[in-house]
Amino acid sequence: MANIRPLTPELAKRAKEELGEVPERIDADIQQLRDWILKQPHLTARTDDQFLVAFLRGCKYSVEKAKHKFDNYYAMRGAVPELYKDRFVNDAAIDILRSGVYLPLPKPIAPDGPRIHVSRYGVFDSSKYSMSDIIRVRTMLGDIQFREDDNAMVMGFMEVIDFKGVSPGHIFHFNAVLVKKISVLGDKAWPYRPKGFHFINAHSSCEKFLNITKSLMSDKIKKRFHVHSNLESLYEHIPKESLPAEYGGTNGTLESVINGWEKKLLSYKEYFEEEAKYGTNEKLRRGRPVNSESLFGIDGSFRKLDID
């Protein structure tokens, strides 16, 4: 029997309906994916059941798609070193987490609904950290979700992006290449699916950034962008009670959410130290190497967004 957490009855029903999950077939699907991974000379990866089932769920049980996404997930470490180098639970990671720049909330939108994330890009110290540093911590919380968050893995996530406090110093750190890399990561390597991006407090310079960001996204993701002029408009998509107290809701306070995630991240200290040994050796890959150019069609050089 596969060593995976049983889903709640509500999520099990949705996994069956939305992902085509067949409980009797999960063991065989996991084994098929694991057998393939172990035969790849270029791939050094984790292969525990709970981790592999995340990719199967993220690919609606297409084992071929799961192989591709899993392979990209590890190839990204070489292709996007600015996001994956030095992913350790250290003082900087904890400091970034404590700023509350990115937080998955404790309760999903419903027992059988997506997880809610809140991103606040105006709260981090832009003189101390770059956007790459922020996204690196986000990938760490994402890795924990892939293992532990059944709502996110079965039903995806909705993200509230709050531009309150975003200054020219913050916007300076956003660049077209990094945005493109994050969109490709989300599309081709991360096993959970975005169900909507909801932007609030977007002033005029943010709107220009938003338009550039949108232009770099796939058509499917573009349709999931919503800009709200007020919280009432946001509540039409995300119920008030699903949001933190600071946004008029009852889904924890930002401080309590930060404290919970800090404990969780600290408990994964050894896990991220082990992570350093996993990845791909593109010299051993059969066929074309997976690198920055093949994934993004760019050479990885950084160009700043023109926000004047």
- By CATH, the topology of the largest domain is Phosphatidylinositol Transfer Protein Sec14p
How many individual helices?
16
- Gap from first CA to last CA: 58 Å
What ranges have pLDDT less than 50 throughout 5 or more consecutive residues?
299-308
Number of domains: 2
Q: State the major sheet.
A: 5 strands, mixed
Rg on CA atoms, Å: 19 Å
CATH architecture of the largest domain: 3-Layer(aba) Sandwich
Structural class: alpha/beta
Q: Which sequence of strands runs across the widest sheet?
A: 2-3-4-5-6
Supply the CATH class of the largest domain. Alpha Beta
Give helix and strand order, one letter per element, not per position. Answer: HHEHHHHEEHHEHHEHHEHHHEH
Quick one: CATH superfamily of the largest domain?
A: CRAL-TRIO lipid binding domain
Query: Beta-strand percentage?
Result: 5-15%
Rough outline: globular
Helix content: 40-55%
Number of E-state strands = 7
Mean pLDDT across the residues is 90
